[in-house]
Structure formats: C-alpha cells, structure tokens
Amino acid sequence: MVASRSRLVVLGTGFGAFNFVKRVSDGYDVTVISPRNHFLFTPLLPSTTVGTIEFRSIIEPIRYARKEITFYHAEAIDVRTESNTISCVGIGTERGFEVPFDVLVIAVGAVSNSFGIPGVETHAYFLKELADARALRQRVIQCFELANLPSTTVERREQLLHFVVCGGGPTGVEFAAELNDFLLEDLKKSYAHLLPEARITLVEAASEILSTFDQKLRRYATTLFRRQRITVLTDSPVTRVEDGVLSLKDGSKLFFGLLLWSTGNGPTKLAQAVRLHKDERSRFVVDRFFRVQGQENIYAMGDCSVVEGAPLPATSQVAQQQGKYLARALNQRARSQPVEPFEYHHLGMLAYVGSNKALADLQNFKGRGLATWLFWRSAYLSRSVSIKNKVLVMFDWMKAKVFGRDISQF
C-alpha cells in the first residue's frame, strides 16, 4: 500500500510562496490559497504605472510554478490549529469552505500601512498590486484631461496637476521618477500647454529619503530630484488627508490631484485574525527555521513574519531567499536529513531615480548614474521568473523608447 502524501498548504503567491512552491518536493500534496492567482514581480511595478512596462509582462500564473498543484482563488480568513484546518472565502462569492493541512506555510505578505491617519484609506492610492498600478495610470491621464477642459478654473487646474507621493522609500521614489519621465518624455507632446503647471512633490516624515541606502546615494537622489523640479519635503509628517488636500504637521496644506501613499507595511486581515504568536506589529514570530513560535507544523515567511532576535528587512530578496530555504528544509526533513538554520545573504539594493539614472548600494560597490541604470535593468531582467517575462519586459522597454508610452484612458 502506497503511503499518502502530507497535505502541504501555502497561503500567498508572493516572492516567498512562489519560490517555495517551485522547489518543494513532489512528496507533498501541495495546495495554494490566495486572492491573487499569479506571482507579481513587484520591483518593476512602478514602471507599469506610466506604461514603461505593460501589466502582464511582470506576472506569472501561480499554476505555472509547478505541475500538479491545487489552487484555490480564495482568501484565508482564519487558521484553526486545534483541527489543522483553514477557513476560506472564495473570491467572487460569499461561500466559505475549509481546507485541511498537515503542514502550513503562511506567506501572505503585508498591506500598505496608513498608520491610522484620517482620510488615507479613502483619498489616497496605494501601490501593492497590478490593480493599484492600473488605477494610478488611469488617474494620471484623467488629471490631465480634466485640467484641459475649458470649464476648469485656474485653481482647480493647479490642484489637478499636482502629484503628491507620501513615502520616501524605494517604491515612492521610483514612482516619482517614473512619473517625471512620463511627464517630460510623453505627456509634453500632447499637453504642452499644461506641462509648466504640472508638479511632483515627495513627502517624507524622516530627515532623508531612501533611508536604507548609503548616505552619498541618498543625497545624490535628493539633489537629482530637485534638479528635475521634483519637490522633496523631509521632516514632514502627515496629519490628515481630505479630498484633494493633504495636511502636514507644521500646519501647511498641499492640494493635489493624485496622492500615492507608500509609507511602509501593515498586517493583512489574516495576520490580525489568526491566534498564533505575533509581535506588536502583528507579524508572526518565527525561529531561524521559520516555525511559528509554539507550533511544529506551521511556518511563516516574508513580510508577514519576523525572525525572533534577528529581524530582516521587508524586501523581495529576503522573501525569495526564505522561500528557497524553506523548500529545501522541508525536503530535507521529509528525507530525515539534518536541517541548518536560515542565513540571509544581503545582495544589495537598487533604485531607479529617473532620467535613465539609478542607484546601486551593494556590498562592494556604490554606484549611481547612467551605467548603474543599465545595471539596474539587467539585474531586474535576470531576476524575472520566466523566459516569457524576460522577452516581454525587453520588448516593452524598446517599445517605450521607440514609440513612447501610451496616454490612452480606458
């Protein structure tokens, strides 16, 4: 009689989950549950907001990760440790169902953190999913079309053409850079009379943008932005967001047509609901083998977890390394082999800052400018998960260079 395979359930389809599912042994009966049925290459997500790269060029269906997996397009809402089951609700339906497991891997990521500031959830845009990128892309064009109408007043036009980014991390900086390129390279052809009024403001609560980068690189990015007429406001905490109005702690107000909120990560609904050991930020506390504290068959990795005593940054490379490690570790456990604890290897950080310039903060190299931009592109291209994605991204870059970015609204 053939022994039944262990039921391995994975929650999520991000960097950690995707790399885990690709590499875990065939000895497991793998089920993936996620409200997103694809893997999203988030480092290139800001490029999709203005059409430098098209949306489908940076996604890969989760069913392509490996053969013979079961996928449920659903949201996990609770984990019942006493019965080893997961409560789920299907996307597009209100019907719930239960999924049993022998081993559970939680890799649900995080959501944008509004820090409880009034009005953020209602009046700001976020950038976590392709739907967010598409909404931003549509809103940018809509602002220009509305500003172009004869009935629009001068005051309203100034507001519509003011694009504000809250958060000076890589996502906020790269969106501001991509938007500025879009304005100068493409929108000026069709809205030349409006371009002098278009403004971009980057708001950061800390004293500098890109705080995790080398100090010289941070200053280079700030200087470059100001040279490109991107206003950088540091030491400027936000106190309230209203319809088209951003209030700062010093009492000043910014009137905007679009507000991107990119100020850090917060817990998902599942992370808040599950009764497992968590820290004060509702991240699952795990050991160096990624076992959730107090559990033998439940693991957590990526942005939704924190290694006790050794916290790691919430980046794609961390989640990717964790996913590869955990797959290898479970494969070794299945073969009764010894497992070594996880060791993170920092590969450095990259960021696009506009005008074909980028930053590279690596262990043995601190680069900036055009050559670093070429390195930035080649690095992200090499990390794309399939040949199809690599070809599509290269084609999109060439298409944008030759024909420009599309400015249609639909």
Alpha-carbon distance between the two ends: 58 Å
Shape: globular
Mean pLDDT: 95
Helix content range of the residues, please? 25-40%
The CATH superfamily name of the largest domain is: FAD/NAD(P)-binding domain
Under CATH, the topology of the largest domain can be stated as: FAD/NAD(P)-binding domain
Explain how this protein is built.
It is a single chain. The chain is of the alpha/beta class. It has two domains: about 5-110 and about 265-335, FAD/NAD(P)-binding domain, CATH 3.50.50; about 120-265, FAD/NAD(P)-binding domain (3-Layer(bba) Sandwich). Helices cover about 30% and strands about 25% of the residues. It has a seven-stranded mixed sheet with strand order 7-6-5-2-1-8-19. Strand 11 (about 200-205), helix 7 and strand 12 (about 230-235) form a beta-alpha-beta unit. The mean pLDDT is about 95.
